UniProtKB/TrEMBL annotation:
Keywords: Repeat. This is Fibronectin type III domain-containing protein. It comes from Butyricimonas faecalis. It comes from the Bacteria. Residues 34-130 form the Fibronectin type-III domain. InterPro entries: FN3_dom, FN3_sf, Ig-like_fold, Striated_Muscle_Regulatory.
Amino acid sequence: MKKKGFRSLLFICLGLIATIVFTSAVMMVSPPDPPGRPQAVDVQRDRCKIKYAAPRYDGGSSITGYIIERKYKSSDNWYKVSGKDNPTDLEYTIDGLVEGSEMQFRVRAVNAEGLSDPSKPSDMIMIEDPFVK
């Protein structure tokens, strides 16, 4: 009788340990931290190339891409500019911009769990031909 009770208790304990370990492993994955603040590295009359740093913490899952967003100076609304496929590089060129406009960019990281909060926005960037002043 004692052996049977001990086996039952052992089975229950092992089941609880397995549940705790499994639950802990599942809970370790979360959305990533925000990427670093984007910086303009090349501004032309109709495009801007930005670079940014990877998040400090990937949320326990590999970063699968980045979402680039733009906001005009005269607006409070952010719009996705990175297209259908999220870029995986730590730099991105935004084409089709209007010369003379001022805008900011921000970046979100994507992993299997979801989206990060947005990065801090870039400084305000004037879209202009660098050779015409």
